[in-house]
Amino acid sequence: MATQGLEFAHVSFEVPGGRRLLSDVSLTVDEGTTTALLGRSGSGKTTMLRMVNALVRPTAGRVLVGGVDVGSAEVVGLRRGIGYVIQETGLFPHMSIERNVGMALELAGRPEGEIAARVAEMLDLVGLSGDFAGRFPWQLSGGQRQRAGVARALANDPQVLLMDEPFGALDPLTRAEMQTMLRELLRRLGKTTLIVTHDLDEALYLADRVVLLEAGRVVADLAVEDVRGSDIEAVRSYVAATRRVGV
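RESULT FIELD:
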């Protein structure tokens, strides 16, 4: 029986002109675990993430979700089973928070009463109960908007959750609060999660495994407890870069 894990099998991606953004990437994300994709800008992290919900198609290799090849999957059905959280949330500014969070359920044709109940449940889950449902995105703080974005991604009860630098635009205190909330949710809900980040501390706090990419290749795939003590040169360099202290 297929699981809801993710697999990248010898995946490459080449843009017109011949430049490769990913080169022969093989990676497995076990069902119910969280994996962080770490690396500098341009390393291929977001390209990998977008392949999971068919926003980007590999030029070689296969991406599988729950054992099903994304290349042969029906796209709408595939995306309904995948939650997607991006930086700055992507909320529709002309819609209330309630409508934003319930959008996936509305598109799936769920009854209004079911949508309302699920939205209330999700907003409570991310700490936005009360009168937040009737507000608009511009009436919320950055952290509150990001909570709404997480609620929207989880509303349709996806088995897979994709997060692309979800807290990168937040101030340090709000970011720490969001990370704490998300870690609790991930452990409680058991979603198969892939997170793109530049932040080593965030990766170590949220994930079970850390995958480091350089120039479109996987150079390390480690359990979080093995990262800081790794003897892989690329990992040592990344760790050292986060420990710089001003004079």
